[in-house]
Amino acid sequence: MKKNVLVFPCGTEVGLEIGRSLQYSTHFNIYGGSSIDDHGRFAYKNYIGNIPYVYDQSFISRLNDIIEEYSIDYIYPAHDDVVLVLAREANQQRLRCCVVTSPYDTCEIARSKRRTYETLRQKVATPKLYGGISEASYPAFVKPDKGQGSRGAYLVEDETEAAFYMKKYSDQLIMEYLPGREYTVDCFTDRNGKLLYSEGRERIRTSGGISVNSEFIDNPRIYGISKIINENLAFRGPWFFQLKENADGELALLEIASRIAGTMGLSRSKGVNLPLLGLFDAMDYDVEVTKNSYHIRTDRALQARYSHNIQYQHVYIDLDDLLILENKVNPTVVSFVYQCINQNKKVHLLSKHKQDIHSTLASHRLQNMFDEIIVISDDKEKCDYIAEQDAIFVDDSFEERRKVSKKLGIPVFDAHMIEALMEKF
Question: In the chain, which end has fewer C-beta atoms inside a 10 angstrom radius, N or C?
């Protein structure tokens, strides 16, 4: 029987990566939860909104209500504050399901850069923390003690700039500026404390503190640092840390997080599905890591997802220049057709194809996809062959779409519009 997993908050880049990692699993059903009306509503098919904020007094009791109502077996925290709150022993005793996270002491240290440096500075290189503005060497870096991404982080050139940003936030640290390349290291530690996976990737380009262009690097020093951190903090499941080169090219530890990273999809693309491994480890299964050896690089941009109120049970779809474009099958259109088949919607092929349509479908391996195949001559109108009102029409021809829309008043689509109809996680 499948286990039910609640990802919270599901609209963060972390929550979206967990969704992508688990969406095809045969072992888990995924639910997305959020306190605000964020992108999770568009990405998760099973979406639960209006959950109290993590520091609200009613948060745990409301979470238990959700756990009971949806038979949730596991919660995957997708934000640093949520990790910390749910990792508390008192909260874990109250919750009626398992939280996929490291022990609270580790989460608490990882949440604070100051505590991270104090814990590990004798073991690994860390940035120098200045006691105050006047003690700093400039340029310096100002960032929150408890923060994520690049929020509240500023490169300051002098004492005036430093004073401005130090006053702007209450928990700012002023530290040594590290000018070199930056890396994220994806890690996994099993329930026995064994470090099963450590892979460093360069943060080539970032946006809003998120690595949007990244590739793996082969650097033995990184694995050594991973082992040291793992030996000094008790992790369980997926975690990561960030490194940056100082002026001498030495790697210094920037921060640690006991959760999934938003760009862990790069590890997943090599066969290491860290969110999935974390769930199996939480179930006390023995897991192992096998990765592919090819080189791969990721580049990310905004991805659009849609919600709509279109109700339809029939799809009338064209063949030439739509399903087959330049003598090649359009994979996006095929994905949509099979989505309709999975949803028990009827798919009608409506075409003015001039050759033998069955031979054409067979040559492109598209036979047996359709509930009905309708071939008409050029002098006929497609709008005359659509019988149902709960139908949509997909055709590359503007004129055909115009006629169908005008006569029948049903939604009409071109191939570039199909992404709006694709289902959620």
Answer: N
Distances from the Cα of 407 to the Cα of 316, 412, 413, 415, angstroms = 15, 12, 15, 21
Identical topology for domains 3-101 and 128-176: no
Order of strands across the sheet that contains 98-99: 47-48, 28-33, 3-8, 74-77, 98-99
Q: Return the CATH number of the domain spanning residue range 314-421.
A: 3.40.50.1000
Contact indicator for 239, 189 with CB cutoff of 8 Å: yes
* Contact present, 52 and 62 (Cβ < 8 Å): yes
Which CATH number is 128-176's, of 1.10.1040.10, 3.30.1490.20, 3.40.630.30, 3.90.180.10? 3.30.1490.20
> What's the CATH class of domain 3-101?
alpha beta
Fold held by 181-293: D-amino Acid Aminotransferase; Chain A, domain 1 (3.30.470)
Q: Which pLDDT band holds residue 294 (cuts at 50, 70, 90)?
A: very high
Domain locations along the chain: 3-101, 128-176, 181-293, 314-421
Q: What values do phi and psi take at 120, rounded to 5?
A: -115, -5
Q: Which of 410, 424, 425, 422 is nearest to 331 (CA)?
A: 422
Pick from 129, 127, 132: nearest CA to 159: 132
Q: How is residue 304 written in tokens?
A: 């659009």
Strand 346-351 to strand 372-375: parallel, antiparallel, or no bridges (unpaired)? parallel
pTM: 0.92
The single residue listed with the structure tokens 């992790």 is: 235
pLDDT tens per residue, range 18-45: 999 999 999 999 999 999 999 999 999 9
Dist. CA 44–CA 32, nearest whole Å = 6
Q: Mind listing the pLDDT tens digit for each residue in 116-132?
A: 999 999 999 999 999 99
Q: Are β-strands 172-176 and 140-144 bridged in parallel, bridged antiparallel, or unpaired?
A: antiparallel
Q: b vs e for 24-47, b when ≥16 Cβ sit within 10 Å of the residue's Cβ? A: ebeebbbbbbbbeebbbbbbbebb
Could you give the count of Cα atoms lying within 13 Å of 84 in the half-sphere of its Cβ?
13
